[in-house]
Design brief:
By secondary structure, the protein is α+β, with helices and mostly antiparallel strands. The protein contains five helices and three strands; from the N terminus they run αββαβααα.
């Protein structure tokens, strides 16, 4: 957590109802392009027999990214023919210092549930961040992502967001 909150009073939306899934996420290498909502479902609360439902928590607040409208169904695009997934997220404030952490959380979560042949692009929504170009470059550079995840403090923060029971 940070010492001072960047957005002390975020707008919080109600959580949406989810139906638990029980199939193995690696059983089929194809992603149904018509079932984009399942990807958001995966990010927000994927359930496996060996895991409990998990939400990605915001790095600063005890709310999910969905509750803060950082992620939505419309912000996820899948092109199964090209093997591409594009996720755009909207930080709660334009000067959000946690945008790269949020992007790392999304990338780590997707890496666990999708076949490696999918190209994943994660970007902040156009005009939603003061340093949009730099954040997008960091989130889609393999070497920068690997280096960030080698940092024990940053990795701990990502893990806390992915595996927190606070929601």
């Amino acid at each position: 957590m940070t010492l001072g909150l960047i957005n002390a009073n975020p707008v919080v939306h109600a959580k949406k109802e989810r139906v638990a899934r029980s199939e193995d996420p690696h059983a089929d290498d194809a992603v149904d392009p018509l079932d984009i909502y399942d990807i958001l479902f995966l990010l927000a609360s994927f359930s496996l027999p060996t895991l409990f439902a998990v939400d990605i928590r915001d790095p600063e607040h005890p709310y999910s990214l969905e509750q803060l409208s950082v992620l939505s169904k419309e912000s996820i695009t899948v092109d199964d023919k090209l093997g591409r997934i594009l996720i755009t997220f909207t930080p709660t404030v334009q000067h959000c210092s946690m945008a790269t952490v949020i992007g790392l959380c999304l990338r780590v979560k997707l890496k666990h549930y999708f076949p490696p042949h999918y190209k994943v692009d994660i970007k902040v929504s156009p005009g939603s961040h003061a340093d949009e170009e730099s954040v997008n470059k960091q989130l889609n550079d393999k070497e920068r992502v690997a280096a960030a995840l080698e940092n024990p403090n940053l990795r701990q923060l990502v893990d806390e967001c992915l595996y927190s029971n606070e929601l």
